[in-house]
């Protein structure tokens, strides 16, 4: 059994998963953007699962939970950034219905002193709950 906790800040939501025999095993931050009546966009950030608990579906459950909650909040588009070389995160998001929207140029990433990133996007109107 898995318990999910949600802490709300203005427009930000933090999700963490805790299994009965483990400390927190997964964490994700999500933001919803846009005033009521306008196109609303969401952003997932810092989806992470404890190394010992990876490959058990926890990351998928975090992302799927955020998708359902975002849809209930009227979010139409959901985005996430992933480092270009982070194949496991890219696979997770694609498995959850995200598509490649854009790829950051390496020169831009160097200017920001970070690895180049992929921008992934999902049209939540296609989500089947």
UniProtKB/TrEMBL annotation:
One of its GO terms (molecular function) is acyltransferase activity, transferring groups other than amino-acyl groups. Transmembrane segments: none annotated. Pfam families: Acetyltransf_1. Signal peptide: none annotated. Coiled coil: none annotated. Residues 1-117 form the N-acetyltransferase domain. CDD domains: NAT_SF. InterPro entries: Acyl_CoA_acyltransferase, GNAT_dom. PANTHER family: GCN5-RELATED N-ACETYLTRANSFERASE 7, CHLOROPLASTIC (PTHR47876:SF2), OS08G0260000 PROTEIN (PTHR47876). This is N-acetyltransferase domain-containing protein. The lineage of its organism: Eukaryota, Viridiplantae, Streptophyta, Embryophyta, Tracheophyta.
């Amino acid at each position: 059994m898995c318990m999910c906790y949600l802490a709300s800040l203005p427009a930000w939501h933090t999700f963490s998963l805790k299994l009965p025999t483990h400390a927190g095993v997964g964490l994700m931050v999500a933001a919803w953007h846009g005033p009521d009546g306008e196109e609303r966009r969401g952003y997932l950030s810092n989806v992470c699962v404890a190394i010992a608990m990876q490959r058990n579906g926890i990351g998928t459950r975090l992302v799927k939970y955020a998708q359902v909650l975002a849809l209930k909040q009227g979010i139409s588009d959901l985005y996430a950034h992933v480092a270009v070389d982070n194949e496991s995160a890219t696979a997770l998001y694609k498995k959850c219905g995200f598509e490649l929207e854009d790829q950051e140029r390496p020169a831009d990433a160097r200017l920001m002193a970070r690895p180049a990133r992929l921008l992934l996007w999902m049209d939540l109107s296609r989500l089947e709950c």
